Fold this protein.
Amino acid sequence: MRDDSQGFIARIGVVVHGPEIIDSGCALLLINYLKKLGSVTAVLGGTMGRVAVIDAGLEDVIFIRPRRRPSHSIQDLGAASDVIFLLNQAKSRESGLAFGTMVAAAAGMGRPLIQIDCGGRFVAILSGKEGDLAVQVASDLGLDFLLNPPLPGVSFRKDATKRSLSGVCPGELISINGIVIGRAAESRVEIEAKDGRIMAMKGVKPKQHGLEKLSWVDLEKAIIRSGSIRRSEVRPRIGACGRRDKGEGKWAVLIDHCAEDAFEVAEGASVAVTVGDDTTLIAGDILARLGIPVIGIVDGDLDHLAGCTTILQGSVVFRVKPGHDDLVGRRVRAEIFQGESRICISAGDLIEKVKRLAGEQLVETEQIKS
């Protein structure tokens, strides 16, 4: 309910997306501004933003659990909000608009949804009728007001699905669900899948090994990114939100090419085995905030999907021969984890078992000391 005489909105939902808007300080500034207009409930949409929230010490301001897509977070807030704001900091206005309109299409709700993008420097109405409010917000914040941006959705053709990315910088990595499948050659990228397999790509120089790892994908629901998962560099807040298991039982988890699931997968664990170069860096960076060390299995095939990362002291990284990290990872799952993703074992015993299993494929062992 809104009191137009005072410009006050009773219930405001806020979905914060991505680490950049948090790292820059804009998310907190915008939330404090919106609190002047009504009662605010702020939640996160996405994964790496949770790391940024922890680093900024904003856990009491932005609700970060459970992991939700931005469109799902919008749906979650729908019943309890009079208007919802999507906060973002895109690389460009074009990419910001493309992101906002896709999220709005995926959310598929009629409740007023307004996007504030600090990177593209605009305010846009994505759904509903809150023109006066959006104009007021744009004016107050010194941003451009954009009226009625297009609402592209996912394209379907018979049994094929097509997704596109706009505002891509040529040379940027293109990833699907955290797996790099190529490098952008143009500013617009198109990916088409049929029966769960990538069949065609435009504007992308493919990475065959990445496509092989992505044996099946639901392109409609997949997380597709261009560029680094976190562009800003900040001081990490190590071990601030978790505690390592001090009891007799020591839980270990296996994270195999699904680094962004690390928060959920590693809950209650004292150590994690990570398979893959980028997986080890990204999952290690996430888990450092929870005080959880990693045992990484890498082969030197690093895509640099993440920017500045950190790995907790006490972690161990095993570098194996090129092309063998996946092979060793499969053996770890089968022979140590017995096909499961979680077992009870001490970190020391697990390190020795992984080392023995790597055997002749082991090239180098790195102990993370700081």
Q: What stands out?
A: DSSP finds eleven helices and 21 strands in the chain. Residues 90 and 129 are 24 Å apart (CA to CA). The first strand starts at residue 2 and ends at 3. Residues 93-107 form the longest helix (15 residues).
